Automatic annotation (TrEMBL), chain A:
Its cofactor is FAD. Gene3D superfamilies: 3.30.465.10, Uridine Diphospho-n-acetylenolpyruvylglucosamine Reductase, domain 2 (3.30.43.10), Vanillyl-alcohol Oxidase, Chain A, domain 4 (1.10.45.10). InterPro entries: FAD-bd_oxidored_4_C, FAD-bd_PCMH, FAD-bd_PCMH-like_sf, FAD-bd_PCMH_sub1, FAD-bd_PCMH_sub2, FAD-linked_Oxase-like_C, Oxid_FAD_bind_N, Vanillyl_alc_oxidase_C-sub2. GO terms for molecular function: D-lactate dehydrogenase (cytochrome) activity; D-lactate dehydrogenase (NAD+) activity; FAD binding. Its EC number is 1.1.2.4. One of its GO terms (biological process) is lactate catabolic process. Keywords: FAD, Flavoprotein, Oxidoreductase, Transit peptide. It comes from the Bacteria. This is D-lactate dehydrogenase (cytochrome). Residues 34-232 form the FAD-binding PCMH-type domain. Belongs to the FAD-binding oxidoreductase/transferase type 4 family.
TrEMBL record, chain B:
InterPro entries: Cys_rich_dom, HdrC_iron-sulfur_subunit. Residues 155-234, 323-397 form the Cysteine-rich domain. GO terms for cellular component: plasma membrane. It comes from the Bacteria. Keywords: 4Fe-4S, Iron, Iron-sulfur, Metal-binding, Oxidoreductase. One of its GO terms (molecular function) is 4 iron, 4 sulfur cluster binding. It comes from Desulfopila aestuarii DSM 18488. This is Fe-S oxidoreductase.
TrEMBL record, chain C:
InterPro entries: FAD-bd_PCMH, FAD-bd_PCMH-like_sf, FAD-bd_PCMH_sub1, FAD-bd_PCMH_sub2, Oxid_FAD_bind_N. Pfam families: FAD_binding_4. One of its GO terms (molecular function) is FAD binding. This is FAD binding domain-containing protein. Residues 31-213 form the FAD-binding PCMH-type domain. Keywords: FAD, Flavoprotein. The lineage of its organism: Bacteria, Pseudomonadati, Thermodesulfobacteriota, Desulfobulbia, Desulfobulbales. Belongs to the FAD-binding oxidoreductase/transferase type 4 family. SUPFAM superfamilies: FAD-binding/transporter-associated domain-like. The keyword Repeat does not apply. One of its GO terms (biological process) is lactate catabolic process.
């Protein structure tokens, strides 16, 4: 147990809360995990304060739950998994430490949101490889730590991209920096020497950042992250390709990425594209959804410093021969939806309300990784489970994001429901559990397990659990960091 | 020479493993990428070209001495020279020479293999590398060929031990004689006075015996007054052309393999191949006609001062570039109806037939294994026959085919030419 | 023999009589006479059994596949030679990955891939090395490098557990090596410690990311070794070498080429290495160096354009011309000769003459003094440029072999990252070796003091405290995954 006085000494009075209304907001989210109220919510301002808090937590065996993004939360990872927990809300750590065109890198603290970082880097002439329309309050560092898929797969060389380096307070309270940032020297000394925090590997032959990504705050607390950025295009030309045959769109996306012809590239079903594009609810939404073909591939061509028009032009020509071969058609607009308008949206976080909440007020997301040959079967499996649960399959939003330069696909089902309706909550919760099991049986890889299905996912790979536990024991020997999450 | 003279070469080995594979530019996939039968069969690094150099290095440094295992490793090498070609694609250092010299030194130091000892004893007694059945010249009975020891001829056809004493191989010599007659060549044979070339003895490490054979052969040639020797056997070709030159006894003798000579005769218009031989074949380059058949390069000089392994005058390394590769192919291409379908490993990076280096005598199982690998590769081309230009290859292939139950046929190139004239 | 007959028999029971050898006669061909036995496992089960037995008997083990360079070994250790694990298990064209065992070489894999219009990252140590080694190579600009090409992996841990990383652990699919949860790819090193090595343990299979290959299914070569060459450069391919008036101008061009995403390969060879690449022997190499030195205006690099269409080719060339003109680059006439360009092309794609480029002029196999630094290219160039100046001073005094004081390097992942290397060979001067070791130490200390990178050649106890105490965390990882200390990580081995 923490004593409030001690906490106040570390972070100051206004940054410690034990008001029940505040605690309540951190006790639950839109996932189906059990509600559990933390004892305190603390808002540290810097790494030093975090280190002190972690050391204190070790002494008092107090669970710490790091939270970076603002509400709404969706996946249960920020809801305490054990009693007596203290939430470390890092959303106030808002420094953008570096935006650097020459080295194509940015660096910020965990409280910095996409809404804040996007314009800051664009001012420098660079851009982030963004996830698909994150909510405005989403922490950039949080997104990187979650290995959130990104919309420009050709720029994702490794699944850990675009994360470069991490500054961390690990579970022992010690500071650790990953990759090039590790040293020698402080970050400031490195800057002075002309060094930036760009190379992700090391120090030594270990790739430490991989151990903290996907850990849901169980290994260490990030105090900053550096992010590989790409150059801001001087010209862009987006396209939509609609088809009732999703396999054709997989084929097209494969070649677009393989030949590195496009920047943004992803596939949505009509439900999700309508959810993103509808302006007037609910009439627009239904109209758009019904007017659209079942599947839509979005891709975007870009030109940079040199002869941008010519770059876009030859790519258009090359893509035309691909689309002809695959028997699909690229268009600037589809059922009244303009590719340009979608591009504008894709460059920014979602407008409020968050696009996943617009239809019914809540969305439960089931997401996993797979490969082209398996995806059609997995889409069918989801439909079967939806039918079994009497949930209209056509109401499920689907987002398919090719990743890591075309070597895998992130597939996400967005199951919309009314958060005020106990029956819908029950229906979707049961559907989620059943669908996760069914999808796993058909080869879906749940690389980022969250919420109630976590155990079922982790239990399939006992050797990994054993190995992860070893790593956990090194960085967080007293299991004070977000206990109850993943396999810890 | 002794292995001490190769210290600079062996210490230059960086254990990169290139010697285990065919030259990297020629790798066409996961199959048929290996160059060296010895490491391919026995897997431990000591069996590779580089491994052999590193073992020598250890001995030169006094860290290792002869042992039974080392002897076993030493003799389980076909002496095919493939490792050297692959190394010399990128490196300037001698590989095959120190490996060969190590054999020689092993023999000198009494580290011999009983099976090879027996063969050499036979050689010393009978001038033959194979058991003597009948007389050397029996194959020529009734062909009315000139005896070069008694009559003036332009060309001496050196038949070789295997063809002479293995009745199944007589047809090769007979075909050769027929071809030469057809082309109107004034040639002769040495008949019963022909002696072993000594090439295989040298491969086995018996340098003195090889030198002795070289002397005998050169004396015979001098006496006969011939300027040109044609061999039907790749080992013989390598011995006369390369080894005798290395021994300093070759003089200005012109040495031609029968495949080269046929090619020459055809190009001179003296031989025409007119009969159809409807067949798809693949061609196996014998090591001693191919990469090891490249001319010997005499060098005398010193290592340059400095830290580079360079010499004054520069050493012109034998990299297998100038072996006899095209003439047999041109001959095959001239046979009407015949189609050549190449294997993956050809020319300077051809996989050995398995019979070299005394292996067929010291470890027939290894020789057979190596041969089977080649037969499998030959079959992969879709060919119905494998053509070679050496009786030792032919023998090993036939045994490998019999053991593996394959239907692939084996021909010497002269058999096909005979069919085509 | 270092092992007792009883212990030897236990290992023999796992792999069979033919696949174990404890005879001292084979040891120098590995590393030293200290090895207890070399074993040749044929599959993961055998590897696991060997590793478990080592743990039970408290015997150290190490592992190597294709191998490179010799090093000392602990007395009596078990040496896993992965030669028999040489299968390409799967090539997935749609998802662009290949699953291979550790003894599949990059040459074998690339040859299979080219037939399918695909390519893989090949490390600078050469295509004869295992395809799963970490490291960097000549095509890194477009294929990336280091561990960033590894996907699913099967790892026998130092304690003998089989860990299937990522998707493999729960779905038997190889496309992803990360999760569920944190990625254990982080604890597998394999760099600087040889191919199949983890931070201990043995990688028994790995999936590698693949890339598009716009060239022919196989290079149609003419000539015999060592003079193989293409009949002609394939359509939409171009090879050039550009030299620049200064290092900053060279790097500016390199950066812009990366940023504009026009290039298949860029390799910052100095003149000596370019010459090695195209010369079949040392004498010619030295002659060519002399010729090229007269022609170049300063540091440079070669580039290979490999476009997917004629339109792309035209665009790539146009951008390249503009960048070169803006940065004061000058094309080497010699490489504009299609025959020479073709050589650079085939050697740059298959990485078939690394040994020439790095070792041919060296007297002792594999021994090299110097630095190989990955990461931020601009700061590492600056640091190595200074090291090169100190190297030149020593050369002037006769204390090092005169190679003109050169270094080399290249950009990685469209110039986001890079690799920079410098070598320095001793001269016959009696004090040369000491001078070079001192140069190494000085250069390493500069990296540390100037906050540039964690240098090699200094004790970990000196470097670690300056670099997030990573030596302490590494030790903890080692204790966790290598609890009995049975795995020995071989130093400075490649492939």
């Amino acid at each position: 147990m923490f004593q409030k006085d001690t906490l106040v000494k570390i972070v100051g009075e206004k940054n410690v809360t034990d008001e029940s209304s505040t605690l309540d907001t951190y006790s639950k989210d839109l996932s189906f995990v059990n509600t559990l109220r933390p004892d305190f919510v603390i808002k540290p301002k810097n790494a030093n304060e975090i280190a002190q808090l972690v050391k204190l937590a070790n002494e008092t065996k107090t669970p710490l739950v790091p939270v970076s993004s603002g509400a709404q939360h969706f996946r249960g990872d920020t809801v305490p998994g054990s009693g007596g927990a203290v939430v470390l809300d890092l959303s106030g750590m808002k420094k953008i430490m570096r935006t650097d065109r020459y080295h194509r890198v940015a660096m910020c603290e965990p409280g910095v949101t996409f809404e804040e970082l996007i314009p800051a880097v664009e001012k420098e002439g660079i851009r982030l490889n963004l996830p698909l329309l994150p909510r405005k309050s989403k922490s950039v560092v949080g997104s990187l730590l979650e290995r959130e898929p990104v919309t420009m797969p050709t720029y994702q060389w490794d699944i850990s991209d675009p994360l470069a380096c991490l500054g961390l307070i690990v579970g022992t309270g010690e500071e650790f920096r990953t990759g090039q940032a590790a040293g020698p020297g402080t970050i400031e000394e490195q800057w002075e020497a002309g060094a930036v925090q760009k190379a992700p590997y090391g120090p030594g032959s270990t790739c430490w950042h991989r151990l903290f990504q996907g850990a849901q705050g169980t290994m260490g607390i990030a105090t900053w992250a550096s992010i590989r950025c790409e150059i801001l295009p001087t010209l862009e030309e987006p396209f939509l390709v609609g088809s009732p045959y999703v396999e054709r769109l997989f084929e097209l996306s494969h070649w677009l990425i393989r030949l590195r012809l496009v920047n943004e590239c992803f596939i949505l079903n009509n439900t999700n594209l309508a959810a993103i594009m509808a302006k007037n609810w609910p009439c627009d939404y239904q109209a758009i959804k019904h007017a659209l073909p079942p599947w839509i591939l979005f891709y975007n061509l870009a030109g940079y410093e040199y002869y941008p028009e010519e770059r876009v032009s030859y790519r258009k020509k090359n893509i035309q021969s691909l689309t002809q071969k695959i028997a699909v058609e690229s268009t600037k607009a589809l059922a009244g939806i303009s590719a340009g308008e979608l591009l504008q949206k894709v460059h920014r976080p979602s407008e409020e309300p968050y696009w996943k909440l617009r239809y019914k007020g809540a969305s439960h997301d089931i997401f996993f990784l797979s490969i082209a040959d398996k995806l059609p079967g997995l889409l069918d499996a989801m439909n079967i489970e939806a039918n079994k649960a009497s949930y209209p399959a056509s109401d499920i939003g689907v987002y398919i994001q090719p990743g890591v330069q075309g070597s895998s696909y992130h597939c996400e089902f967005n199951i919309f429901y009314d958060p005020q309706s106990p029956s819908e909550i029950n229906q979707v919760s049961q559907l989620s559990t059943a669908a996760t099991l069914s999808l796993m049986d058909k080869g879906a890889f749940f690389s980022r397990p969250y919420g109630k299905s976590t155990d079922a996912i982790m239990n399939r790979d006992a050797a990994t659990v054993t190995a992860l536990t070893k790593v956990k024991n090194i960085f967080d020997p007293n299991n004070i960091l977000n206990p109850g999450k993943l396999c810890f | 020479m002794s292995i001490k003279d190769y210290r600079g070469d062996v210490e230059k080995c960086c254990r990169c493993s290139c010697c285990k594979f065919i030259p990297l530019q020629k790798v066409k996939g996961s199959k048929y990428s290996y160059a060296c039968p010895s490491i391919a069969k026995y897997n431990f690094n000591a069996y590779s070209g580089g491994g052999r150099l590193l073992s020598m290095y250890s001995m030169l440094k006094g860290e290792m001495d002869y042992s039974e295992k080392l002897k076993e490793i030493t003799y389980n090498c076909n002496m095919c020279g493939a490792c050297g070609v692959s190394c010399n694609y990128a490196m300037d250092m001698q590989v095959n020479e120190p490996i060969s010299e190590f054999r020689v030194e092993s023999v000198k130091d009494g580290q011999t293999h009983p099976a090879l000892e027996k063969v050499i004893e036979g050689l010393r007694k009978t001038n033959s590398m194979v058991p003597v059945k009948g007389k050397r010249g029996d194959w020529a009975a009734g062909l009315n060929l000139k005896n070069a020891a008694q009559e003036q001829v332009d060309v001496l056809f050196h038949v070789g031990c295997k063809t002479s004493f293995d009745p199944k191989m007589h047809k090769l010599a007979q075909a050769t004689a027929k071809i030469l007659q057809k082309a109107g060549v004034n040639f002769g044979i040495a008949g019963d006075v022909e002696v072993c070339c000594g090439g295989r003895a040298y491969q086995m490490g018996y340098e003195e015996d090889a030198r002795s054979q070289a002397k005998k052969n050169m004396a015979l040639i001098k006496k006969a007054g011939v300027k040109t020797v044609v061999t039907g056997c790749a080992d013989g070709y390598q011995a006369f052309k390369v080894l005798y030159d290395k021994f300093g006894v070759k003089g200005d003798l012109e040495v031609l393999h029968i495949s080269e000579y046929i090619d020459m005769l055809m190009k001179e218009g003296k031989l025409k191949l007119t009969q159809k031989v409807n067949m798809t074949v693949t061609y196996h380059d014998p090591c001693n006609l191919g990469r090891k058949g490249e001319s010997y390069k005499h060098w005398k000089g010193v290592r340059k001062p400095g830290n580079r392994f360079m010499f004054d005058p520069p050493k012109d390394y034998r990299r297998g570039e100038h072996g006899v590769y095209q003439p047999p192919r041109d001959v095959l291409a001239s046979i009407p109806g015949l189609t050549l379908s190449e294997m993956t490993r050809i020319k300077e990076y051809a996989w050995c037939c398995g019979s070299g280096g005394g292996v067929s005598e010291s470890n027939p199982e290894f020789a057979m294994w190596t041969g089977k690998e080649r037969i499998e590769e030959a079959l992969s081309t879709g060919a119905e026959a494998i053509v070679t230009t050496c009786p030792w290859c032919e023998k090993n292939f036939k045994e490998a085919i019999m053991a593996s139950g394959s239907k692939l046929k084996v021909y010497d190139i002269v058999e096909l030419v005979e069919k085509a004239i | 023999m270092f092992l007792s007959p009883e212990v030897y028999k236990k290992f023999e029971d796992i792999v069979g009589e033919e696949n174990i050898c404890g005879d001292l006669a084979i040891m120098p061909s590995y590393h030293s006479g200290q090895i207890g036995a070399v074993v040749l496992p044929k599959d993961t089960e055998q590897v696991q059994a060997i590793v478990k037995l080592c743990n039970r008997l408290n015997i150290q083990f190490t592992v190597m596949s294709t191998g490179f360079i010799r090093a000392a070994m602990p007395q009596g250790c078990i040496y896993l030679d992965m030669r028999r694990m040489n299968k390409i298990i799967e090539i997935n064209e749609k998802d662009m990955y290949a699953v291979v065992e550790p003894y599949v070489t990059s040459a074998e894999l690339q040859a299979e891939l080219m037939k399918r219009g695909l390519n893989c990252s090949i490390k600078g140590s050469g295509a004869q090395c295992t395809a799963i080694i970490r490291g960097h190579g000549h095509m890194d600009l477009s294929t990336g490098g280091d561990d960033r090409n590894q996907l699913g992996m099967e790892w026998v841990t130092p304690a003998g557990d089989v860990l299937k990383l990522g998707a493999l652990g729960s779905t038997h699919e190889w496309f992803c090596g990360d999760g569920p949860g944190p990625s254990l790819r982080g604890v597998i090193s394999g760099r600087g410690s040889g191919d199949a090595l983890a931070e201990g343990g043995v990688i028994t299979k790995a999936a590698m990311k693949l890339y598009h290959w716009p060239g022919p299914a196989a290079f149609e070569l003419e000539g015999q070794s060592p003079n193989y060459n293409l009949k002609e450069i394939p359509p939409n391919f171009m090879v050039r070498y550009y030299s620049f008036p200064s290092v900053p101008q060279m790097y500016e061009a390199e950066l812009k080429i990366g940023e504009s995403e026009i290039m298949f390969a860029l390799m910052g060879f100095n003149v000596a290495m370019l010459s090695a690449n195209i010369s079949p022997n040392m004498e010619m190499e030295l002659e060519v160096i002399e010729k090229l030195n007269k022609e170049v205006q300063g540091p440079g690099f070669y580039v290979i354009v490999a476009a997917n269409s004629p339109e792309e080719f035209e665009y790539d060339q146009k951008v390249l011309d503009k960048i070169i003109s803006d940065t004061g680059g000058k094309s080497l006439a010699m490489v504009e000769d299609p025959k020479v360009g073709a050589l650079v092309l085939i050697h740059g794609v298959r990485i078939s003459v690394s040994i020439r480029e790095t070792f041919r002029l060296r007297p002792v196999g594999g021994k090299a003094y110097g630095f190989q630094i990955m990461g931020q290219r601009d700061v590492n160039i600056k640091w190595i440029d200074e090291a090169a100046n100190r190297k030149k001073e020593l050369i002037k005094k006769g204390l090092g072999a005169d190679d003109g004081g050169v270094y080399f390097g290249w950009s990685v992942e469209n110039s986001h990252l890079g690799k920079t290397e410098i070598f320095f060979d001793p001269s016959p001067h009696p004090e040369s070796l000491d001078a070079i070791i001192d140069w190494q130490q000085t250069t390493a200390r500069k990296a540390l003091e100037d906050h540039l990178n964690p240098p090699t050649h200094l004790p970990l106890s000196v470097v670690g405290p300056e670099v997030s105490n990573y030596h302490i965390w590494s030790k903890k990882l080692d204790e966790a995954f290598n609890p009995n200390g049975t795995t020995v990580v071989l130093p400075s081995l490649m492939g």
